[in-house]
Amino acid sequence: MELQELQESARQVRSRFGEYESRRYGRSWTPEEIMLGFVGDVGDLAKLVQGKDGVRDTIDLDAKLAHELADCLWSVLILADSYHVDVQQAFRSTMADLNRWLDSQE
């Protein structure tokens, strides 16, 4: 799946979540609230990484790790969409910047 397809899939799920949130809470989550959810997901991811490093016991560790990484990617895609960031271009530019910096350190 290409990044554009991932972004569209993330948008569709976000739209469905927005409908659910409106029914449940009377409004959909703001980007700030999505960010707070992302922070929670990153915390969950950190615990799973500890599991991979052998310092936390977790049942179905690999499946949970894959799920949490996907959750985090979803949040990044939705936040980028919310703030009109071309994440594909930003990624390319950032990697080029990092490579230039690393080249200068040799």
The CATH superfamily of one domain bears the name MazG-like
* Helix fraction bin: over 70%
Structural class of the helices, strands and pairings?
A: mainly alpha
Would you tell me the overall average pLDDT?
97
Protein name: Nucleotide pyrophosphohydrolase
Keywords: Hydrolase
GO molecular function: hydrolase activity
Pfam families: MazG
Mind sketching the topology for me?
Elements: H1 3-25, H2 31-52, H3 61-82, H4 87-104
Helix pairs in contact: 1-3, 2-3
Describe this structure in words.
The chain has 4 helices and no strands. Helix 2 (31-52) runs antiparallel to helix 3. The longest helix is centred in the N-terminal third of the chain and has 23 residues, at 3-25. The mean pLDDT is 97. The protein is an all-alpha fold and 106 residues long. The chain has a domain at 31-104: MazG-like (Helix Hairpins, Orthogonal Bundle). The radius of gyration is 17 Å and the shape is globular. Pfam families: MazG. InterPro entries: MazG-like_dom (IPR004518). GO terms for molecular function: hydrolase activity. This is Nucleotide pyrophosphohydrolase. Residues 30-96 form the NTP pyrophosphohydrolase MazG-like domain.
Features:
4 helices; Helix Hairpins; mainly alpha; 106 residues
